[in-house]
Batch of 2 targets.
Target 1
Amino acid sequence: MNNLADNQARPKSSAMSLKFKNLFKNPEMFTLIGFIILMAIMSFGSDQFLTASNLTNVLRQVSIVGILAVGMTFVILIGGIDLSVGSVMALTGTMMAGMMINFSLPPILAILIGIAIGVLIGYITGSLVAYARIPAIIVTLAMMEIARGAGLLYTGGYPLSGLPGNFSVIGRGYVFGIIPVPVLIMAVVFLIAYIILNHLPFGRYIYAIGGNEEAVRLSGVKVKKYKIMVYVISGITASISGMILVSRLMSGQPNAGEGYELSAIAAVVLGGTSIAGGRGHIGGTLLGALLMGVLSNGLNLMGVSSYVQMVLTGIIIIGAIYFSSKKTVD
Amino acid sequence: MSETILEVKNIRKEFPGVVALNNVSFKIKRGEVHALVGENGAGKSTLMKLLSGVYTPTSGEIIYEGKKVEFNDPKDAQAKGISIIHQEFSLIPHLNGIENIFLGRELKKWSTVLDKRLMKSKAINLLDQLNAKIDPTQLVSRLSVANQQFIEIAKAISIETKVLIFDEPTASLTGKDIDKLFELIARLKAQGVTIIYISHHLDEISQICDSLTCLRDGEWIDTKKVSEVTKQDIIKMMVGREVINAFPEKLKVQNSEENRLLNVKKLSNNHIKNISFHLNKGEILGIAGVVGAGRTETVRALIGADPTKEKEVYINDKRASINSPTQALEHGISLIPESRKTQGLVLGMTVAKNITLPNLKVLQNKMRLIDRKKELVIVNNSIKDLRIKTPSANQQVKFLSGGNQQKVVLAKWLNTDCKVLIFDEPTRGIDIGAKEEIYKIMRDLTKKGISIIMISSELPEILGMSDRVLVMYKGEIKAELAGEEATQEKVMYYATGGVDNE
């Protein structure tokens, strides 16, 4: 009986202080602090940096990798990885372009076909991971090759051009004259992901599977189904990114998106999501993507060479992970 | 040489939101077997982790061989002569016995190449010392649990060890192996090794220990000579009250066709042969047997967690197809697995999220979103009903004690529409107070018409709780004993391979 009274007397205050403590234990906090510091440095380094037009520009540049990173967050949260997103993005993009150019399909239909291909690839990947129990890194490595090859085969290795002019709205257009369409799409994708991860049973299962798959399976949850769904989501976000890229370039580039999978993984990990699965936040991923975008934009403005930028990005990733893992270890 | 080898003084250890140990002080004499008792969550394991260098105390001192010591890590403690044999062994399954024994301290020729021959002969020597007949060249994963433990002990004594800590060493052992372990402890003691022995089994303590220290809720209660106290005294120290009757009264359950809920026929796979049994409404069916008899395999096959070659399941005389835990759940059959940490819980998630995991669908509102308020109500009710000790519903389950973790697993299923609950070793590693509570909960469930299958390696538990007992041996059911027929001797007889032709 004593304990019962204890239980009821304590919660308020300890829950509050716990929340406060946890706030500073969240790895995203480090990303946020890093992000703010970086913003400050960049504003001092270049007077063009902190202008509305430049910041809008950063957001637009971030949108493609940001959307890829949303799918990647899902995959990494269940303890998986998806190396195929860059290739899938190129394949679905060129397919969309091909549908519009060669078959004169209306853009909306071409987009749906492209997304369907992304879904199919995700479904195959997910099934191989869930049912054939092949490690995700192997399956998606293979899928990276397959999708890249398929894209090159489809286009014969050349960019496809001659897209209908109104298609450019997705990559180059603005809403209300100020918000770039890709940024709006990214915002919607993040919002949907936020709702799924935080308010739907599916999201709960994703965290749980990443935490302890066997316990979730024994809880009667259809683990395999949800695993497949996660890879399907990654396929969808890859094809959305593919769509934006094609529209921005107004051509279907079979070689596009090489290395984007790594940028997406970097954004997720910088955002504090545990590479082992089970822990992380979609908001962190957004911060991670923004951080990388600001870094490259700011350094560009300062005239730092892109080779140096790559080296710096790598160092920042290691540094960020080192500090956040040190803080969250117990 | 002083008489006291190890002393803790005013030790305090805090974890986020919890004080695990508070102001604990006592002494351990050189060369004795010193038992450490207390309910789960009393702080025994935490204390041992402090002594073996896994944790460092928040405040207080450890005095070892007359000097104040601070261990930075387990290696540090080992180098000074304190080793621990963990409940879950720390062996690497893909390496063999020799490699495990010398892990991190490999012997080398010309200080470069591994001296395999020397290590082998030393390993054989060590195992001989322990009187253990184990081939150290076998992969550890192929050894029985008991033999793995011997390898672990050999590893500990391969360094000069003055204090050896055993954390629940008999939890996964059976009869003969326990005797072997006790012989070994006696031998180590004769060699002058001081032993700290953590156990829930009071019989073991009176059998092998010289003195005992009791902790309760992180506080030191008493240190006594074992010869001076009775079992009742120890239990009183542990729970702070007298235990009158551990098992709630049995109900009269009809074992008849009309009262049948579940009929299982011809359950077979690689581990079990032709298992057939039935379960009545409101009944507790015990499954006894030694470790490896195929009990866990039977229930896992039943709920579709493992594949089967043959299987027929009838619920209320209707054939049911159960090929996955999901389908089992749909039919109202749930398993509370043997290993809470690896199979029952997502340790990094909160109490609330663990409890609602199997049952999220009922929490969805019109928008298909999880209704957090409703969730909290359900979870707080469970916390109250089952008396789960946790600072809040949002505490991560990894910070809860074993007994409370078990209650969280139980709460998961009690919130579903379950008809059959399968308990696999429901009270393993749980203290007496929590055990009693679990027993009471189980009996109360049967009053509500829920049927229970209970696997247990503890005979008193099997006899005290079961309405009927199945005894398994080597993957087969050897006997079915109704309540009054089931005696300790009979169950043991069948469980050790006795046959039905007296």
Target 2
Amino acid sequence: MQYDKRYSHEVWLKYQKRPKTLWIKLLAFVIFCLLAYWSMYRIPTAIDDSLDGMNVVKSVLYGLMNPSWGKILTFENYGAPYLMLETVMIAFLGTFIGTIYALPLSVLGARNITNRYMAFFMNIVVVLIRTLPFFVIGLIFIRVVGPGTFAGVLSIGFTSTGMITKLYTESIEDIDRGILESLDSSGASQLQKLRAGIIPQLFANFSSHSLYRFDINVRNAIILGLISGGLGFELNAAIGNFRYKDAAAYLWIIIVVVLIVEFSSSALRKRLVYGKRG
Amino acid sequence: MKPQDTLWKKLGRFWDNTFKPYYSKSARTYKFDTAEVASPYPLTLYILLLLLAVSIYAMYITNIDILLFFRNLPNVMVIINGLINPNWDYFDQILNPILETIQISIAGTIVGSLAAIPFAVLSASNLVKNRWIYGLVRFFMSIIRTIPVTVYAALLLFIVGMGFASGFFAITIFTFSIVGKMLYEAIETIDLGPVEAIESSGATQFQAFRTAVIPQILGNYFSIVLYNLEINVRSASILGFVGAGGIGLILQNRISWRRYDDVGLILIVIFAVVFIIESLSRLIRKRLN
Amino acid sequence: MIVFKNVGKTYPNGTVALKNVNLTIEQGEFVAIIGLSGAGKSTLIRLINKMISPTAGVLTVNGIKVDESLYGKKLRKFRRKIGMVFQSFNLVGRTSVINNVLAAKIADKGFIESLLGYYSRNDKLDALAALNKVGILDKAYVRADQLSGGQMQRVALSRTLAQNPSVILADEPVASLDPVTADMIMKDFKKINEQFKITIIANMHHVDVALKFVNRVIGIRAGEVVYDGPSSEVTEDILKVIYNRELTEDDIMFKKV
């Protein structure tokens, strides 16, 4: 390496000692390219040219412009609003069940309340519950109680328990000890510490987590409807039978309701965590 | 509360603390030397009642039949029994579908994450000052986000064909909307000070962006992409149901035939795949920080 | 050489930030600008590299007029020669110290090089040399947010040095630092000014720091220059005029024992 006299010796030494990260980055890039190629090489052949794709797109868009108003503006049993209400109720109850189960489970799983082994064991159980896809659980519950909304509630309830417990446990473990210490030093009893120190913190956090899960559950409930009956099923049936106007009707209701749920849940959650001004 | 208080006194105090604030303003006023402060009207009871009411209504609408559940509980034992004893020989038959599911997930995640970048940049209020632009882009992405993956898959069946193609495009669109949202939220948390500093040294806006903004969100971006990869593997397993390729169709088939030992194996394999991806992603995320 | 001739800045909403500013700053001077917050110090400094545009008068920096004709490529080339140091350091915490200093070089790069973030070997050596000039060569490959405040400001300083500027503007460079570190940083500024003959113009709201290190003090009050002279001649009465009040504890950094 030529010694450029403009630079002092120490600068040269430091330069030569520089971390040579280029190789790792190159390697990562190569691995990435290989992975990308492996996962995507089948795409061009997989696309079915024989289908009249553009026509379908046009029909879908046309249907979206003129949805079946009959299905939207009715509150009858099989109109879109009722089905959506059903779905939201499934999500609500599922979240509710999940929350109720999560309360004891999360306390048991928190490292600052129970001992390490119990907490570890609970965490494994929770991870197991979480990895089971809600759809599969849905299929199983349908075997138990038959298709319909009940199976939906049970499935969503079961799978929500997993994530809500995990979030709750994290909240419990993150409790701000400082507040408890200052309460201690002012002479509060255990019960008072619980009421004034822990519960306000946890209440806000827990509500926020449950609301978050509710948002997700509404979407999952729609998907679950595919097998358990309800909005998901009707929507897919409409698409499968090329009844795009009906499908559009269901889609519009879904879009509006899910947007409202998402918007209000995130606004409520912000308010819970940050207080009135946010 | 002193231990020598009578039970009646304790009850009285309990009532004063929990129920009286609902009908008496003085019960929730705190008096100080110079001022009186009344805490706002308590809403807790009303919220609880509301939740209870909604729950009862929900139970009515969804036809909850607890008795039915307990009557059929033995069925669950059969199912669980099958799941716990997976059929290891079945593995050869599901290898290809599982690989297909993985391919769909990875491909969809990559394309969706890349496509989301420009839209996320346009949605960031600290980069784009025009309210209409970022509002519109955000709104557009929200709508795409509300439509479930399975619906996209079902629609795409007739546009690009069954199997791999529809699954891939469905995951791409879905990932696009989620990564878009998470990315613009991350962009809004960055510090724009360094951008000013680089611009004051004579660089173009693009160069300032490249040196001051990108290092701040690159880590977040990879985290977001990996997180979505995990979600997508699960979603891709489901998409098979609507005919979009991968393991989903087989899964449903096995369940209909009550071959729970096969189902058990499939679940284990899916679990293994998700676990591997989660571990890898956790490792990579640690390295990035 | 920087020349202000009747320069003024009035914002569109009517606020007059500066008016009738007449100054001449020669190459190699070390000048401090003092005054109350909001008096116009930041505005004055940001006019020099056109972060803010003057609305009245003529501002000339090294022969180039700072007005509407200075934009685009011409403006960027102009800014290359002017470095800026900020109160909040403005470093990119998540990347290494040397990457922060190298960022000063990207203005000279073309599109592809900028995109890839490619720096030549000489670039990297220049950056290391700049770090060496302020004495933190050993931290070159450390992540920038692992440093202390004083070290971060030094990195910011070496970032400007990597540009080979003729002028360095410093906007409250030591306001976020503790007295000991502030002293060290000011000594670095002084060393750079004397060794490399770079003009340094620094805003300060700590009066004693300013008086201790600089040769020339410019006092600003309500947008006008009320004092311009050697720091040795600054008296308490003059300070009262600049600040329009008695000095308080906030205006002094090095507490007298």
